[in-house]
Each structure stands twice: as C-alpha cells, then as structure tokens.
UniProtKB/TrEMBL annotation:
Transmembrane segments: none
Organism listed in the record: Aurantiacibacter xanthus
Full protein name: Oxidoreductase
PANTHER family attached to this UniProt entry: PROTEIN YIIM (PTHR30212)
Record GO terms (molecular function): 2 iron, 2 sulfur cluster binding; oxidoreductase activity
Domain FAD-binding FR-type residue range list: 1-100
Entry-linked PROSITE patterns: 2FE2S_FER_1, 2FE2S_FER_2, FAD_FR
C-alpha cells in the first residue's frame, strides 16, 4: 500500500520517527502489538520496521529508524531521502513478535532501538489492565528514544550503560526473578538476545519471545551447491559470491523477500532434501535442526544440493 509521510520527528541521536498515513484519509489497517511493516525503499531494497504507535490510533503508523553507522543502505536512505509529504510503499502489518494478552505478568526487555515494539505492547497491556514491567537499556540518554513517553509509567525502567557511573542491565537477575508463568519478551542486539535465550532455557518455549532488529550473522555466499526446484523443475547453481536468493532471482524465480537479513521470515521455503546452512534469526533451534525449511535470503547449504518445494 502507499502511505504519505506526514511527520518526521527526532527521537534521539541518530533516531527519527516517521508518521505514515493513508493517501485518502482513511484509517490504516489494524495491527497487533509487536507487528512491523516492510518498507520498500527502492526496487531490491526493503526493510522491516516495528510499528510504534498505540494500535488504537488508527489514523497513522509510526515507525522509528536508527541511522546505523554501517548501514547497508536502508536506514541511511530513509534519514537522507525521506521528507514530509512524500509517498512511500509499505506492506500490510505482519507480526513475528505477537504478545500473549492473557499472561499473568509480562516482562519486556529492550536494548537500543529494540524498544520500538514494546511501546504498542505497553499501550495494550495498560488498556487491558495487565501486570507488566519494562527494562530498557541504552548507551547514553542522548541515544535513547522514547524515554519521555516511557516516563509516564513507573514500571518502565530505563538504564544507561555507556556513561560514567552507568548501570548495566542484569539480565540474569531479571530473568531469574520473573515469575514462572510470566511471558518474557526481548528485542535488542544479537548478543543480548543470545543471552536472553540461554537464560530462559528452563522456561516453556511459548513464554519466551524474541525479535531481532538487525542481523548479526554473516550471510552465506560461499556458493558451490545446486538448488533443485520441484514445482518448476528447474535446477540452479549457486555460485561463489551469491546468496541463494540472488541465484533464484537471477533464474527468474518469483520469490518474496523483505529484510534480506534472515529476520522477517518472508523468504521461508520448504526443504525436501539436503541440509541447509542456516544463518537466519527467524527459525528456532529445533526448526533449524529439523531442516524442513530455509530462509533463502541469508542461508547456504552444507550439502551439494538442496531440493526446495518451489
Ligand atoms: S527476507 Fe526476511 S528472512 Fe529472508
């Protein structure tokens, strides 16, 4: 769908928020807390951004974009090229980070720009009158977005670990002290998420929720394997320097993708034979071990051929 940029606000150093509204003044499609939209920046460059606003606010979508220093084009493009009044192309909301609304207690843990999906969650939890707490760590006050908005909630704790006398988030203590039936959510850098997952191994998997906001694993481009596509009958070689997605697109295979970083799940394809070299952050460890699907944007192959159900 097309949407118009109505407002751009500076939220913190290197972080802007962008408000997107429909062209005809109609309400935006509904979304659930934790949802994101894919933004098409130009052909071949799409990025996913969490929706930040209260889902009850139907007149606009708000996204926040951190201008990453080593941006591969996504955040830099938005910060440099987007202006109020312009029309951009976005997907309908998708949700890979849904919230359990019936939890007895909800623990939200965010690092940096990972705070964005937590804001609509908080709005919904407040609306439902649920018990919740937020722990948000940022490097410095200047680099922390939405602190003002969060200051309305006594159960939202913000700490800064990059300043003199700063406080480190004690993830181990936090996870250990959460009630057994709590649902825990974490969005932040890869290391934080890895620690979070390891610390919560003892909890039911359904109670532990994570969302990567940027891929930290290297995309597989070693090539040297073939793809057999059962539906189209094609066989494609993946050359050195190419991703599986590159090879599929070059061969004219119509395949959906968005983040290109193994985060969003859009490019998931069923595997019928072979062992993928999983590089994504979308599949669970169990799903990766089962080798029944692969994220073609970033993963490679451990076997000389992969048979795919496309
Ligand atoms: S395009 Fe997002 S996981 Fe592959």
């Amino acid at each position: 769908m097309k949407a118009r940029i109505t407002t751009i606000e500076r939220e913190a150093d290197g972080i802007n928020s962008y408000f997107l509204a429909s062209l005809d003044g109609q309400e935006m499609p509904p979304f659930e807390p934790g949802a994101h939209v894919d933004v098409e920046l130009r052909p071949g460059l799409t990025r996913s951004y969490s929706l930040v606003n209260d889902p009850k606010e139907r007149g606009y979508y708000e996204i926040a974009v951190h201008h990453a220093i080593n941006s591969r084009g996504g955040s830099r493009h938005i910060h440099e090229m987007w202006n109020v009044g312009e029309v951009v192309e976005i997907s309908a909301p998708k949700n890979n980070f849904p919230m359990n609304e019936d939890a007895a207690h909800t623990v939200l843990i965010a690092g940096g720009i990972g705070v964005t999906p937590m804001l609509p969650m908080i709005a919904r939890l407040e609306e439902l009158g649920r018990s919740w707490e937020l722990h948000y760590v940022a490097g410095t006050p200047e680099r922390a977005a939405y602190v003002d908005r969060l200051s309305a909630y006594p159960n939202a704790r913000v700490v800064f670990d990059g300043i003199e006398g700063g406080v480190r988030l004690d993830l181990a203590k936090l996870c250990a002290s959460a009630p057994g039936d709590a649902h825990l959510y974490c969005c932040g850098p890869g290391g934080m998420l890895d620690d979070f997952v390891a610390l919560n191994k003892g909890r039911p998997a359904d109670n532990v929720h994570i969302e990567y906001f940027s891929a930290e694993t290297e995309v597989a481009t070693d090539g040297g394997y073939s793809l057999e596509l059962t539906r189209s009958g094609k066989t494609i070689q993946v050359a050195k320097g190419e991703t599986m997605l590159d090879a599929l697109l070059t061969a004219g295979v119509d395949i959906g993708f968005a983040c290109s970083e193994g985060v969003c799940g859009t490019c998931q394809v069923a595997v019928l034979e072979g062992v993928p070299d999983h590089r994504d952050h979308f599949l669970t460890d169990e799903e990766k071990a089962a080798n029944r699907s692969v994220m073609v944007c970033c993963s490679g192959s451990c076997s000389p051929r992969l048979v795919l159900d496309i």
